[in-house]
Design a protein that fits this description.
single chain, binds NADP nicotinamide-adenine-dinucleotide phosphate, Rossmann fold, alpha/beta
Length: 237
């Protein structure tokens, strides 16, 4: 894809992996629409992109709200033209055994990690199929490697992986690629701040660099799933 002049929407762009992706896209000349609930964080990302000569707008909202999904997709078109890249990155996790997981906690995780992705993608498809595009799902290795005490999160990411696969089969003949990026541990504040040594972990910038490489692939080449691991994970004692 020709990146300069393209239009991209990144959810969860205020911190961590999404922030690195938004900044990477901005540097590559893509017009970025940054979405998250914390307005100050996405405004800071948008400012960083525009002050370096790029194009970016912030759209504050909770992706669990269907009006936010529709509004963000419309705002992306208004700001930067037809949406070509959708990065479904916003996500939340929690540690709790099934027996102690409330309906509210289950809904918070599934609504953010899966239902919002469905709604955003459905809202974006008319723009993506009208000339081609690329949808990215930032999933997790937890979608294929279950962890005790993380059933809601793991189920949301396993569901996301299958959703992405179905979508890929549906839209590939309309010029839309769908890629799942499934990282292992990334050094972000996900699920609370990290304790101990973190230098062995992946960084948000690693995920961003991979996503940009995938966008630059030939139109005829489609990498539909990428798993990323720290090369030397910390040994569990
Ligand atoms: N870090 C890891 O080790 C790791 C590993 C594998 C996969 N992942 C996946 O990578 C993605 C990003 O994780 P991260 O580590 O960068 O997390 P993070 O640092 O906690 O950032 C999450 C981002 O998502 C936004 N967000 C969360 N809920 C939202 C909602 N309801 N509406 C709008 N925005 C929302 C947050 O902003 P607000 O709170 O301001 O809304 C924030 O900008 C997630 O899908 C996660 O599952 C992370």
């Amino acid at each position: 894809m020709e990146l300069r002049g393209a239009s991209a929407l990144v959810t969860g762009a205020g911190r961590g992996i999404g922030r690195a992706i938004a900044l990477g896209l901005g540097r590559a000349g893509v017009g970025v629409t940054a979405v998250a609930r914390t307005a100050s964080e996405i405004e800071s990302v948008a400012r960083e992109i525009t002050s370096a000569g790029g194009r970016a707008v912030a759209f504050a909202g909770d992706v669990r709200d269907p009006r936010v999904c529709a509004g963000a997709v419309a705002r992306a078109r208004e700001a930067h033209g037809r949406l070509q890249v959708l990065v479904n990155n916003a996500g939340v996790g929690a540690h709790a055994p099934v027996a102690e997981t409330s309906d509210e906690e289950w809904a918070r995780i599934l609504d953010t990690n899966l239902t919002a992705v469905f709604r955003l993608t459905r809202a974006a498809l008319p723009q993506l199929t009208d000339g081609g595009g690329h949808v990215f799902m930032i999933s997790s290795l937890a979608g294929v490697n279950p962890i005790a005490g993380m059933a809601a999160y793991d189920a949301s990411k396993a569901g996301l992986d299958h959703f992405a696969h179905c979508l890929m089969l549906e839209v590939r003949h309309q010029g839309v690629k769908v890629t799942t990026i499934a990282p292992g541990s990334v050094d972000t504040a996900f699920g609370g701040s990290r304790s101990g040594e973190t230098s062995w972990m992946l960084r948000g910038e690693d995920v961003a660099a991979t996503l940009l490489d995938l966008l630059r692939a030939r139109d005829e080449a489609h990498l539909s799933r990428v798993e990323m691991r720290p090369s030397r994970p910390a040994r569990r004692t």
